[in-house]
Specification:
Number of helices: 3
Order of helices and strands: HEEHEEEEEEEEHEEEEE
Distance between the termini: 105 Å
Shape: elongated
Keywords: Signal
CATH topology of the largest domain: Ferric Hydroxamate Uptake Protein, Chain A, domain 1
Oligomer: single chain
CATH class of the largest domain: Mainly Beta
Number of strands: 15
CATH architecture of the largest domain: Beta Complex
Length: about 240
């Protein structure tokens, strides 16, 4: 065998051995993702707000540092989200959302319903407060209920202020019905024209615009029948 042929044969053998070695190495598996544990809130107070299917936008979780002697009422008041009634015997609104007369905000502490007269209960570390929407007489399950939402935007008077009024849907309810049920809209004598909203009468160069699902309505639109989850809007604008 010539020197050149022997060299070629040696190179072939080395290449084959290297290929076998590479093939024998196990494929490196990716390292498992690190599982991040959820924050532990055993040492604080949790406030859960549940808007159900009626007002899912208000659903949220808030956490407070525990302070010795703090009561449930104090936790509600300090949330800056929940507004109690003047007498402190109920919740008038959550965020900027108010409810119709058939609905109310319920309060539970660790899954137990508490009436307003029990809101002076002292809290413990790890307690969970739930604020949720319920019917006044507890006669209906709200999980499948449709809702109607009335939004009032009077930012010309109070910068950025919006009010939301939520009502359960009822068959054949009209735009006028919803406005009257809210208790914040004042009509003229024949109920055909809006003269004030939340106590504000438009100035000389202002007017209230009425919309349903972002589409402007004329005065005749007050008779429009609403459907579940319709959004009625009142907006104060300059002419």
């Amino acid at each position: 065998m010539s020197y050149k042929s022997g060299l070629i044969l040696i190179m072939i053998v080395i290449t084959a051995l290297l290929s076998t070695a590479c093939a024998a190495q196990p494929i490196e598996e990716p390292e498992p993702l690190v599982q991040v544990e959820e924050d532990n809130h055993d040492d604080d107070i949790t406030l859960k707000i549940d808007g159900s299917t009626l007002i899912p936008d208000v659903t949220s979780n808030l956490h407070f540092d525990y302070m010795e002697g703090i009561t449930l009422r104090q936790a509600l008041e300090s949330s800056q989200t929940i507004q109690l009634t003047n007498e402190g015997k109920g919740i008038s609104s959550v965020g900027d959302v108010s409810l119709d007369s058939t609905l109310e905000w319920g309060v539970k502490l660790n899954k137990q319903d508490l009436k307003p007269e029990e809101w002076n209960t002292k809290l413990k570390k790890g307690d969970v407060i739930l604020v949720y929407v319920k019917t006044v007489n507890n006669e209906a399950d709200l999980s499948e209920q449709g809702a109607l939402i009335l939004t009032v935007n009077n930012s010309l008077v109070n910068s950025g202020e919006r009010l939301h009024y939520v009502s359960r849907y009822e068959d054949n309810i009209t735009v006028r019905d919803l406005l009257r049920m809210s208790g914040i809209v004042t009509f003229n004598l024949n109920n055909k024209r809006i003269i004030a909203v939340n106590g504000h009468q438009p100035g000389m160069n202002e007017k209230w615009i009425l919309k349903v699902n972002h589409k402007e309505l004329r005065e005749s639109g007050l008779e429009m029948r609403l459907r579940p989850h319709d959004h009625v809007q009142l907006e104060l604008v300059r002419m």
